[in-house]
Amino acid sequence: MENEKDYSTKTFHIQLLTKTMDMEQYPLVRMIIENNISKQEYDELFEHLEGLYQQYTMQKEEGLLDFTSLLVHFAGMLNVKLHPDAVIAALKKEGYYPSLMDVFMQILKENGR
Description:
Elements: H1 2-20, H2 27-34, H3 39-61, H4 68-77, H5 84-94, H6 98-110
Helix pairs in contact: 3-4, 5-6
């Protein structure tokens, strides 16, 4: 019973903290909290992103111009709790992997999303 009380209190404290800061500046953080993403899931997201960024860099150096396959891979590797378009926008706004997120956003724009 004590664990439930501790969890409830911590959840409440987090809710209070998120109300005191401008969460519009941190859309990824907001998404992580709202979708109850664990530390392990968060770490996995960034491990996958790092791998995709390395692939993007290599493909770009080789002269590849179409990175749609990387976007498809990104969407497929995402936690089911997260929506690819929203995560891309959030990552871009927070400054993570800007060149890769620019490419992903361009592909989405070209496909009417």
